[in-house]
Amino acid sequence: MELGQFGIWTTYPAIGQEQAGEAARLLEELGFGTAWLGGSQQLPALAPLLEATDRLVAATGILNVWQSDPAQVARDFAQLDADFPGRVLLGIGIGHPEATSHYDRPLTAMQGFLDGLDAAAEPVPGQRRCLAALGPKMLDLSAERSLGAHPYFVPVAHTRAARQRLGPSPLLAPEMACVLDDDPESGRARARRYAELYLGLRNYTNNLLNHGFDERDIADGGSDRLIDAVVPQGDAQRIAAVAREHLDAGANHVCLQTAGVDGIPRAEWTALAAALRIKP
Questions:
Q1: Which residues contact 214 (CB under 8 A, 6 or more apart)?
Q2: Is pTM, for the whole model, over 0.85?
Q3: Cα 256 from Cα 232, distance rounded (Å)
Q4: 118-127, pLDDT tens digit by residue?
Q5: Nearest-10 crossing angle of helices 236-248, 266-275
Q6: Which CATH number fits domain 6-275: 3.20.20.30, 3.30.365.10, 3.30.565.10, 3.30.1490.20?
C-alpha cells in the first residue's frame, strides 16, 4: 500500500456520513494518501470513501477489539479487499478502560484478537493491519504482528521514543490533531476544548506522563505547554512544521485531524496540502 507521508483523520459525525464520498474525492484531489476513519467504525464503513476514489487508501482509526468479532472482521476485510485491492488498512485498538465495562488485560485481548484474524478462513495479512499502540509492550506487538503502530494524541517526543522501540522497519503513523487559527488565544482555547476528553482518559494521560509532562501539565484542562505540543495551533505553515517534526522524529506517515470543524473542512485541508507541498 502507498499510504503517502500525510493522511487525514476524521469521523463521520464530523464531516457528515452523507458527504463521505465528496470528502474522499477532495482528499484524493489534494494528494493526501490515506483517509483514516475514526469513531470505532467497522470495516464496511470505509466503502463510501473507497467507492468515490481511485487511489485513496482507507483505514480504520480504529476498530475496537471489545466491540468486534475477529472472524467477521476477517470476512469484511476479504470482501473490501476484493472490491478495492490494496487500498484497505485495518487499524485495531483496545479503546479506553473508561468506556468499556469489561476492559481487562488489554495486551492479552489484543493478542487474542490477532489470533482470531490469523485463524479466520481468509486471514487478514499482517501487513494490512496496524495497532493503536502507545506503551512499550503494545508497540512491540505492533511490530511483531502487524504493519506497525498508529498512536493517537501524542507529542513528537512519543514519536521519537516509539521509533526507537519499533526499530527502523515498522510503520509509525501518529495522529496529529491541529487547529488552524491565526489568533493564538482562540486557537489555544479551541485546542483545549478538543483535548478535554482525552485528558480524562488514563491511557493517554499515563502516556503523556511518560513523555515529558507531569501532573501539573494535565490538571485544569492542560497546561499551555502540553496543549501546544499535542494539538498545535496556528496557520497552515505552522501546522505543517510540526507534522514534519513527527517525520523527523521517525514517523513514516502523519494523520492530520483538523479539530473543532463541522462539515468537510475544505479550506483547512486545502491549506494544509499546500503547506505540506503535497503533489496530487
A1: none
A2: yes
A3: 11
A4: 999 999 999 9
A5: 60
A6: 3.20.20.30
